[in-house]
Amino acid sequence: LDTLEKWVTEIFSEIPNNGLPKPSFGHLTQPFDTPEFHKLYRGKKVHSLTITWALPPQEQYYRVKPLHYISWLVGHEGKGSVLSFLRKKFWALALYGGNGETGFEQNSTYSIFSISVTLTDEGYKHFYEVAHVVFQYVKMLQRRGPDQRQVIWEEIQKIEANEFHYQEQTDPVDYVENLCENMQLFQKEDFLTGDQLLFEYKPEV
């Protein structure tokens, strides 16, 4: 550590600090508020359906991770899930919902949330119905709200904590690069954990 600290000091100490705050683009609201965004685009020979929402920026809620929570509910594959229903109809093979939590998908201007369904040949013929089922499921989650789902949030919290504590060792260069990115996004005490752990349950968020 002493050697590494010496190298870092030698290499970076001459870089001037201009004292300016980190740039924010929060004033650029509704980046996708165009007629083109509210349309269905069809591509040939691609048996998948992707529904994308542009949401207000969520990066300040990294300790709650609301989009991770929603993607967990949407991506559930057990009894009563949207994927279970679509599979019984022989319309879908897989379903994924989520947000990458960095870069294009989450920043100070907006956050993207997508649900992608891998369709069967039969599902491709019924993609309007598949889309309708997905929207029905999201509407149901919205109507029921998170108040009765703290147990699910705590379950996700425990799983993420276990994955964090028992993760395989990563390449040191990749690890340092990830930490440097985290330093731009999280509070100091969360540099090591902010991108993985859930800290606070806040149903209003």
Low-confidence stretches: none
Largest sheet: 3 strands, antiparallel
Q: Class in CATH?
A: Alpha Beta
Give the CATH topology: Cytochrome Bc1 Complex, Chain A, domain 1
Shape: globular
When the domains are counted, the total is 1
Q: In order across it, which strands form the biggest sheet? A: 1-3-2
One letter per element, helices H and strands E, the order comes to HEHHEEHHHH
| Beta-strand content | 5-15%
- Alpha-carbon Rg, integer: 21 Å
CATH H level, superfamily name: Metalloenzyme, LuxS/M16 peptidase-like
Strand element count: 3
- Report, as a whole number of angstroms, the end-to-end distance: 40 Å
What oligomeric state is this?
single chain
Helix content: 25-40%
**What is the SS-derived class?**
alpha+beta
Kindly describe this structure.
- This protein has 205 residues and is an alpha+beta fold.
- It has a single domain (42-185), classed as Cytochrome Bc1 Complex, Chain A, domain 1 (2-Layer Sandwich), CATH 3.30.830.10.
- Helices cover 39% and strands 12% of the residues.
- The protein has a three-stranded antiparallel β-sheet.
- The protein is globular and about 65 Å long.
- 15% of the residues are buried.
